[in-house]
Amino acid sequence: MSSTVAHADHGHAHAHHPAQQHHFDTMAQQKEAAVIGMWLFLLTEILFFGGLFVAYMIYRVWYFDAFAEASRRLSLFWGGLNTAVLIGSSLTMALAVRAAQTNKRKATVNWLILTMILGCVFLGVKVIEYEDKFANHEVPGYNFDFSYHERHAAAEGHAPEASEHRELSLTPEQLQNTTQLYFSLYFTMTGLHALHMIIGVGIMLVITWMAHKGKFDGVYYTPVEMAGLYWHFVDIVWIFLFPLLYLVERHT
Amino acid sequence: MTIFGIPIFPEQASTFAKDVDALYFFILATCAFFAIGVSIAVVLLGLKYRKTHEGQIGARIEGNLPLELLWSVIPTIIAMFMFGWGASVYYHLRRPPDEALHLYAVGKQWMWKFQHLEGQREINELHIPAGRPVKITISSEDVLHSLYFPAFRTKMDAIPGRYTELWFEAQKPGTYHIFCTEYCGTNHAGMIGNVTVLEPAAYQAWLQGGGMEGTLAQRGAKLFNDLACQTCHLDTGQGRGPSLKDIVGTNVEFQDGTSAVIDEAYLRESILNSQAKIVKGYQPLMPTFQGLVSEENLVALLEHVKSMSPKATASSTAAAAPAAATPAPAAAEKK
Amino acid sequence: MLDKLKIPERHYLNNGHGLKSWLLTKDHKRIAIMYLISISVMFLLGGLFAMGIRLELATPQGDFVQADTYNKFFTMHGVIMVFFFLIPSIPAVLGNFMIPPMIGAKDLAFPRINLLSLYIYWIGGIFTLAAMVTGGVDTGWTFYTPYSASASNTHIIPTALGIFIAGFSSILTGLNFIVTIHRMRAPGMGWFRLPLFVWAHYATSLVQVLGTPVIAITIVMLFVERAFGFGIFDPSRGGDPVLFQHLFWFYSHPAVYIMILPALGVMSELVSTFSKKMIFGYSFVAFSSLAIAVFGFIVWAHHMFVAGISTYAAMVFSFLSFSVAIPSAVKVFNWTATLYKGAISFETPMLYAYGFMGLFLIGGLTGLFLATLGMDIHLHDTYFVVAHFHYIMVGGAIMGYMGGLHYWWPKMTGRMYSDFFSRISAILVFVGFNLTFFPQFVVGYLGMPRRYHSYPDEMQVLNVMSSAGASVLGLGYLLPVIYLIYSLKKGEVAGPNPYGASTLEWQTQSPPLTENFTEVPVVTGEPYEYEHVVAKESHLV
Amino acid sequence: MSDHASHGSGHISPISLYITIFLALMVGTALTVGAAFVDLGSLNFPVAMLIAVTKAVLVVWYFMHVKWQSHLTKLTLATGLFFLAILLGMMLIDYTSKDFIAMPRPTDAAGQMAAPEPASH
Fold first, then answer.
1. What angle, rounded to 10 degrees, do the helices at C28-56 and C67-79 form?
2. Which residue of D has its CA nearest to B122?
3. CA nearest D91 in C: which residue?
4. Which of B211, B233, B267 is the last residue of a domain?
5. How many angstroms separate the CA atoms of C356 and C369, rounded?
6. In a domain, B264, yes or no
7. Are the C-beta atoms of C232 and A192 separated by less than 8 Å?
8. d(Cα A136, Cα C49) in Å, to the nearest integer?
9. Contact predicate A67/A59, CB 8 Å
């Protein structure tokens, strides 16, 4: 590394963008750094959820019948609706980033607000679903009783659904235990996903405020883009969670 | 094997021991060759090429591809050889022969319970015949444990909810360590025992009931050892449990502030339901022996404990005899 | 020439005074100094627990402390040393300080995230220390289920949360390094002109970014199981306790490389600088770091050979485990070859480098015993394993850390430490270390299980040797605290390049300016060329 | 400065592209649900995953602009997927080759060591 220091100071040669930090030479360098940094962060997120998927994968293979049985307790309507809502929010987020790229302040703010609203709708639906689980004694470690639903239906005088007469290879005790395993994973996975959504909405609140204040322009809109990447990632996690949790085996 | 009185090598008491030790010496020799070789090279180079004057710099050598390949390929070959040898020993270790004598071991905080198919039950003690393969199926009642016989060079984890197994063929009669090697809580270090390798004839004799019964108290003393009571209840009072010397008839204070006079009923409760009354200053570590100690054995144990308090019991020998007989109805009440 | 040396008027240490100028700084060098202080405190704490362990094991009976206290000692020792000392040690202190000047950058790519990582580390530390103060935790640093999930009644949740939080600090540091190395290099600083220390940190950062999230999610699953009664690993509900071990070691085996890879990087710098010679086989040394990082992810189940994994899986993982040996061997051979025809001088950092070579050799080679299937069955969870990983983590990582700290101390502070005492300390550490841990190989082969509060009488002699060695080792570690602090005020002024090193960080003043260089450097030469450095050399021992 | 916007992550896609992707994702969702109600035997799970992966690729490629990003970004993403594959795949080595014996839970925790029949492999 000899004969190295030479007079070549690019950094101060031309005018700086106000958002440029002193240790970067150009805005392009700064932005590239941010994009790579964000992707590396998403990399950790992939492996974070990856650990959960491993646990899910193994137990699903071990206890497929229980998983199929428990998965039927989830509402396809709410799950499907939420998938649509989240995909919609991904679209609005992509449009928000596009508006920021083209330096349309008002549109950026509006798309961001719409994304947040859709995010909140998703969380609201999740609350409804969780409430249903509490009411049906399907919360592991709290009031878990897998047969409650069936007994409750019988007590109310409803004819039990056809699906509940399926022949199962599991004893009631095994079913109780292994469906509890399913619901433990269900709550952990959807709970962590919802936590990511809440954090995402929080980040977007800040970004929206910044956009409203006119902090971004066609050159500097990195925060909007980063929030977009994060939001799309959360969407992708749900794209996998939906079939894994709601659609284990619906055809019998 | 010892050097200057320091043990450096465990006994070779099973057929595996020789296989594993041969592998050990091979790896040791390989490693010593490289460790000593590189160390000597580094020291000699350091001495030979010591900087002699200010401003001196080293020769410009960027590298040498054939050399790099050489010292990548040679370790690879050695490593693959090591893997192959190790894998073959392992394969042998994991394949119990069909004719193996079958035993069960259950790990429980903090003891090993062994059961022979013939019906014998042992705690922290294991008797096996020499010269015959023994297969042990292992399970756990609570957390992870690991059954380890250093003299046989084998171990296996005990996993709750699952059976695992190990096998060995002991060769040398004698008594060797049993350890738990998977950390299992407070008294992990107390989860130890002895495996006694007997000549086949002696093993048969042991199976038949193993010699003289002795008096009740003597039998109790043996049980006291077999149940590993003595590992905690040291006479010195420094064990994990209180000393049992000269306690009968004395007043004892409990952790919740109450107190009681030590009599047979109290001793019985302390054995069967050990968490009920904890002596002040001690941890509730003692496992319950409900279901582990038969009524006969319980009486024998009580007799043994009382024999440790000669003064208190000498004056009331007459009273003790009927008292010892009372547990039977008491047990019926509990159920 | 020596008498002309002065501490420069402006440098990063006097650019702003007061607590606020430190706590709100974005300067990677100040953050590194704060990390240095934090991890030193943690090292001291972890060392105290180690002292408790060695005192207890001086006698076979469990007579110094109660069994549960002893269990808390080794657990807290492990947790603090692994998660709060070793993992941040070289990256967060030396890497943080040196990577930007080494590649000719003004700072890391994300200075605010760098500061954030320090705060996260502190918060994690507070959680874990709070758990310790309120009663501690007794599961061992491995937190194996179901003991940790249900049986133990100690403070597992705050401890695990502390580790979870500190994990994010590690992730952010790694992320920052990767982006910095990719995007912040000075003009002319190509990938093959990077100092090997930087290469090693690149590999380390990959492990941090890819491995740490897996331990994070494992802790989350342990948390929901313990806190809410969810059943994920609980065997009584059909869960698999061995799955926890799989997930745990998926991170915790590569975590060993988070500790050792930076130390290997330090070694490359030391060996080259103190033999005034270009490193032998630069690209092999550079790529072996990456190889170790990648191979590190496919060998984890060798921690589980007796944990009930299938025979087939054990063979696959044993086979793969040997793959790590090759790049490690390549590194050692290349350092040895670097010495050939060098101009070798034995300043303190080089003494540490020599010590490292010896200890890393033993640590690495004993790893072969444990990777070999038939052998590991006997050695698993005995003191042999304890000795092996201490040779790697203490003999390797901490020797590397100490060597690096001594090497860059004049750069960080502008002053030299006592030559005499630092040599004494390096020798004490080496001797004390071997005395402490070598007997543990023997006692391990005898069959002494790890985490034992008491042990059979015949093993006492070896344990007493170990305890005696530990006191020498402790002294060796305490000495630097004294002479390094002393050097801050009274040390001889070092000048920009006291060792005549060739890498870029030595071409700026000591201590450096906040922006590291007065002008953006343009790199024109290969790394480790000493031909032009000689003239600037100003301090020779 | 505006020349930066024309390359790298600064690519501006037409709104119609985003709408198309959105519609494709919705169709994908409908397909997943539909496929779950058809008995495809052992193919149900692969089909569901195939659709999910396709949807994820669309989001990554267009919504997240990876299509227009530098090689480094693509490499970063590939690295993540590679290590995720290691995590899932290597874990399966053990779980697919496991020869352990399922054990009924003993109900009497009192220490009754009911000796079960030796397991047949």
1. 160
2. D113
3. C246
4. B211
5. 20
6. yes
7. no
8. 49
9. yes
ipTM here: 0.88
Between CA B156 and CA B170 the distance in angstroms is 17
Q: Where are the domains of chain C?
A: 28-536
CATH number, domain at A137?
1.20.120.80
Residue B62 lies in a domain: no
- Reading phi first (left if > 0) and then psi (alpha if -120 to 50, else beta), residue C363 is in alpha
Domain presence at residue A21: no
pLDDT in tens, chain C (541 residues): 445 678 888 999 988 888 999 999 999 999 999 999 999 999 999 999 999 999 999 999 888 899 999 999 999 999 999 999 999 999 999 999 999 999 999 999 999 999 999 999 999 999 999 999 998 899 999 999 889 988 888 899 999 999 999 999 999 999 999 999 999 999 999 999 999 999 999 999 999 999 999 999 999 999 999 999 888 998 888 888 999 999 999 999 999 999 999 999 999 999 999 999 999 999 999 999 999 999 999 999 999 999 988 888 899 999 999 999 999 999 999 999 999 999 999 999 999 999 999 999 999 999 999 999 999 999 999 999 999 999 999 999 999 999 999 999 999 999 999 999 999 999 999 999 999 999 999 999 999 999 999 999 999 999 999 999 999 999 999 999 999 999 999 899 988 889 989 999 999 998 999 999 988 888 888 888 887 775 444 444 3
Q: Are residues B284 and B135 in the same domain?
A: no
Contact A67, A175 (CB under 8 A): no
Q: Which of C245, C298, C319, C321 to mutate to test the interface with D (most CBs of D within 10 A)?
A: C298
Q: Domain check: are B265 and B310 in the same one?
A: yes
Query: Does the beta carbon of C179 lie under 8 angstroms from any beta carbon of chain A?
Result: yes
Give me the CATH number covering residue B83: 2.60.40.420
- Residues of chain D contacting A76 with CB distance shorter than 8 Å: 33
In chain A, the number of structural domains is 1
CA distance C132 to C284: 44
D12, D65 contact by CB (below 8 A): no
Q: What is the 3-state secondary structure (H, E, C) of C450-464?
A: CCCCCCCHHHHHHHH
Query: Which of C62, C313, C380 lies closest to B182 in space, CA to CA?
Result: C380
Mutant choice from D98, D113, D120, D121 vs B, greatest count of B C-beta within 10 A: D113
For chain B, what is the domain count?
2
Rg of chain A over CA atoms, in angstroms? 24
Domain span including residue B302: 216-326
Verify that B165 and B135 share a domain, yes or no.
yes
For residue B7, report the phi and psi dihedrals to the nearest 5 degrees. -70, 135
CA distance B199 to B196: 10
CA dist D62 and D68 (Å) reads: 8
Residues B168 and B240 in one domain: no
Chain D: closest CA distance from residue A245 (Å): 11
Q: Looking at the domain assignment, is residue A226 inside a domain?
A: yes
Contact C365 B35 (CB under 8 A): yes
In a domain, residue A3? The reply is no
Question: Are B317 and B171 found together in one domain?
Answer: no
The last residue of a domain, from among B180, B211, B242? B211
Q: Let me know if domain C28-536 sits in CATH 1.20.210.10.
A: yes
**Structural domain of A128:** 27-163+175-246
Under 8 Å between Cβ of A170 and A178: yes
Contact list, C178 vs chain A (CB under 8 Å): 36, 40
Instruction: Say if residue B260 is in the same domain as residue B189.
Output: no
Cα gap C527→C279, rounded to integer Å: 9
Nearest CB to D22; choose among A42, A91, A247: A91
- Chain D residues near residue C214 by CB distance under 8 angstroms: 87
Predicted structure pTM score: 0.86
The distance of B325 to chain D (nearest Cα, Å) reads 24
